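Lab notebook, page 48
Experiment: co-folding of the full assembly
Goal: obtain a model of how the components sit together before planning crosslinking
Operator: M.T.
Materials (sequences as entered):
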Amino acid sequence: MLEVKNLNVFYGNIHALFDVSFKVEDGEIITLIGANGSGKTTTLHSISGIVPLKSGNVVYDDADITGIEPHKIVLGGLVQVPEGRRIFANLTVQENLEMGAYTRTDASEIKRDYDVVFTNFPRLKERRKQQGGTLSGGEQQMLAIGRALMSRPKLLLLDEPSMGLAPVLVDEIFEIIQQINKNGVTILLVEQNAYKALSIADRAYILETGRITMTGNAADLKNNESVKKAYLGG
Amino acid sequence: MSFFGQLAQQTINGLALGSIYALIALGYTMVYGIVKLINFAHGDILMIGAFVGYFVLMSMGMSWYALLIAFAVSMVVCAIMGIVIERFAYRPLRDAPRINALITAIAVSLILENGARVIPFMGPNPREYPVLKNATFSLGSIEISNIQIIVIVVSVALMIVLNYIVNSTKIGKAMRAVSFDMKASALMGINVNFVISFTFALGSVLAASAGILFSSAYPQVEPYMGIMPGLKAFIAAVFGGIGSIPGAMFGGVILGIAETLTKGFISSQLSDAVVFGILIIVLSVKPTGLMGKNVREKV
Ligand SMILES: Nc1ncnc2c1ncn2[C@@H]1O[C@H](COP(=O)(O)OP(=O)(O)O)[C@@H](O)[C@H]1O
Ligand SMILES: [Mg+2]
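Observation: model returned without errors.
Model output:
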């Protein structure tokens, strides 16, 4: 479904990604694990087209989408929930969801999808008229996910959805991600919480200072000694 | 005339002038909100709008119908100009330091002013503006002219339409989303460039109308006519809180009233100084302006 080939990205002189390549197959949950600053966000930004590539290709649904404008990539069902949620604080919860559905024109189906989101996230329903900026961190993450779902994604990129959340909420978010996947959405999950991510993923890639250094089944990596040491706290 | 009569009279005059400032200030504030640029060419769009209206009115002869056409043609021409200026002058500098874009804006302003001076059918000399036959209505000792009524009615109507667009339409919500977070908007599938073009067009449409209204109230057109109202409206936008739409409306009206009250009660020469003085006082008490938000700089 998604194939990333030999991505090289620079920020000025800083070489942030070195020949990063990986694949996401239809229906999978893939996780990309790495320490802070290893290049996870840069990888997702390259896929979504908001960071220019020095070289390399992004192939999605058999089409080369390298260099395509970000808003056009969304049209194909490749949608990102960005790091730090990036809720529109000056828009209401309802309006945030509307922005998620920006590319769509099927009004009655959009209405139905609001109901789906509100059923899954009842807290958002209670707060639908509130400004996005007034929500708690957990609610904002729910809204960020709900907003992305409003575009009816086929492949959802999630950038550290558990960041800064209380443990109960982290569990809830990971359950939601699994549920979304069961409903037919392929997932590429970027996480620092390696244990959790490996627990729900099918396969994983490990990113170290801009390079993919290891890959395999999530279950195998979870038991791998060097992974345990580096990412699972021994 | 009694003190209160005079006060009411100057307030009405200020309301008319202030509505024009408000219309112009909205363009400054919307553009600043979305691309963080003080579009110094905005006042010159007003001048172009006034000229376009002038040509329509001269060729059709003054009538209500001609005035309507003048507004429509002027709005379309200015909208296109706004879009073109953003596309070719500002967009290439979108990621450059803001000072570069600011200098470009000043350059665009000079090009428009001096361009208007050399274009043969415009030229440097002030021309008399065609206006409706003057009629005044009296309410006790207060007088209000038909032009003032038109200015206020048209401005209020345009501001209601603008509020509707920004608050209740899909593109308006996208404008607010883009002005809050451009990258996140793009990730939602919003065509950011289109939204920015639309914002420039909207601001220019308001400036076009303000141009015709201003030239009807002070019946003249000339290439530098946009500078002073542009500057005052910019002050109004900062005063109300740059980036805030209600702030621009409120700031414009307050500034207009402050100006006419000073002219009426203190001195005409001092009116600009008073206006600037108000700005300095307000900004020293509340640096973000009356309705401005304390925006965190995004990293
Ligand atoms: N906008 C930027 N400008 C300069 N350097 C950046 C920028 N964004 C990220 N980097 C650098 O690129 C590297 C990868 O960052 P990032 O992709 O954000 O990592 P992660 O998401 O894994 O924490 C880091 O060294 C970071 O400092
Ligand atoms: Mg990151």
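Interpretation: Residues 113 and 224 of chain B are 6 Å apart (CA to CA).
Next step: discuss with group before ordering constructs.
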